[in-house]
Design brief:
single chain; alpha+beta; Jelly Rolls; 3 domains; 9-stranded mixed beta sheet; 5-stranded antiparallel beta sheet; 18 strands; 18% helix; globular
């Protein structure tokens, strides 16, 4: 073979090698096969962190997801709910803001749960088990624990809203710096809200309790009575672990006050059973910043001076309430804050009733710019909560705090709705944890 022929042969061989190594479209580079997902190594840590607080024996979820056998039996439901985004429930829009204790699944977690089911839902070896991550949040200590005075057996179905008055035991002014609720019957307790009745308000709420047979009294949307002046102390919804309030902040509580627990029971079509819920508070003698939990809505809607009408047959009714708060904070907070000083929003909640479809809270700045605080694009009356902001939002003079609510009242036989406490009434309410 001539020298020229040998060179041509070598060049051809090199080109063949280069083509094979290039991973071109016609000949992709082989990839390592993906190791099959297993319960112990891949799935259990996700389920324990994101689902286990509700899906536990006797919990509010319809079945437990604590063991491999639990998950294997419900593997089809796990895949379907993950792919549809219905579970775990996390209503806030990710396009608005970021929050602490986020229950939502990221893309990788969704993928591993789906892949595990598709591959046959293998258990794997217990030796490969990964310790679950430490849950985010939780109450660091419980200084005051209060329990409903006696057990209550729900009398209304499927939903029963009941308020219970509990003595505040402290004999000097102190500050609540963290909150946790502990439902006595997790199978039926759907949410808990703790309100504070100040000494001057106690008699009004006690009259409601005295007029009602059995433990507590019926309430809906709030504690009844002088609800507009009752201070929110904290709330619980399924999956909540409780939490400390922002460092060096707290809610002032005077001796002689009462705690009112509003408990929402939902029987899920099952036979009612008794409950005796308790709440725990972290309490300190002093704080650097006194906080308030501020309901935010149009007072003219509440008084019906300007009715919040939701017309019968309307598929999308919208009402918006917007006001600059800083010039009026002394009045709004009953002297806790002063006027014309910036306020900081640390957490937010939104509240409507059963016809709600979408709700949003935001700050409207004088420049025309807007800062989203909380957006619930698909309202679900049965999944409400308070969401702690990763980055608190500050409002200055000129900034307007805004709530916007949408309803669908087009069901057959619908009648006009307005603001009210009843199941068939409606609300448009924001609730914010504020400091100054």
């Amino acid at each position: 073979m001539s020298r020229t022929s040998r060179l041509r042969l070598l060049a051809g061989a090199c080109l063949a090698v280069l083509a094979a190594c290039s991973g071109g479209d016609g000949d992709p580079t082989p990839t390592e096969p993906q190791t099959p997902a297993t319960w112990h190594k891949d799935v259990a840590p996700v389920v324990q962190a994101k689902c286990g607080a509700c899906h536990t024996e006797g919990g509010i979820a319809p079945f437990a997801l604590q063991t491999y056998a639990d998950a294997f039996a419900h593997r089809a439901a796990i895949k379907a709910s993950v792919q549809s985004g219905t579970m775990p429930p996390w209503p806030p829009s990710e396009d608005c803001s970021t929050y602490k204790q986020d229950r939502s699944l990221d893309d990788a977690q969704q993928a591993v749960l789906t892949r595990w089911v598709d591959e046959g839902a293998a258990e794997g070896s217990a030796a490969d088990a990964v310790a679950p991550a430490t849950p985010t949040g939780g109450l660091s200590r419980a200084d005051v624990v209060l329990q409903m005075p006696e057990s209550y057996l729900p009398t209304q179905a499927p939903d029963d809203y009941r308020c219970f008055i509990i003595d505040w035991p402290e004999t000097r002014t102190r500050y609540i710096t963290g909150f946790r609720a502990d439902p006595g019957n997790r199978a039926t307790v759907h949410h808990v809200i703790a309100f504070l009745a100040k000494p001057a308000q106690v008699s009004g709420f006690q009259a409601l309790d005295d007029a009602s047979a059995g433990p507590g009294y019926t309430c809906f949307g709030g504690p009844g009575g002088d609800a507009r002046r009752a201070t929110w102390l904290g709330g619980w919804a399924p999956g909540s672990l409780g939490q400390d309030f922002p460092e060096d902040t707290g809610l002032r509580v005077e001796p002689g006050s009462k705690v009112i627990l509003q408990v929402h029971y939902n029987d899920h079509g099952q036979r009612a059973s008794a409950d005796r819920t308790s709440v725990a508070f972290k309490v300190d003698d002093t704080v650097k910043k006194v906080a308030i939990v501020q309901p935010w809505t149009n007072p003219d809607w509440v008084s019906d001076k300007v009715p919040m009408r939701i017309a019968a047959g309307a598929e999308d009714t919208t009402h918006v309430w917007s006001m600059e708060p800083t010039p009026f904070m002394s009045f709004i907070s009953e002297g806790v804050f002063v006027n014309n000083v910036p306020i900081t929003v640390h957490s937010a909640a939104l509240h409507m009733h059963t016809r709600g479809t979408h709700a949003r809270a935001e700050v409207q700045h004088p420049s025309g710019a807007r800062t989203c605080i909380l957006d619930i694009p698909r309202w679900d009356f049965h999944w409400q909560g308070s969401y702690a902001l990763q980055r608190p939002v500050q409002l200055w003079n000129g900034d307007r705090l805004t709530v916007e609510c949408h309803w669908d009242n087009s069901a057959p036989g619908a009648t006009e709705r307005r603001w009210g406490e009843g199941t068939d009434d409606e609300m448009c309410l924001g609730v914010f944890y504020l400091t100054q």
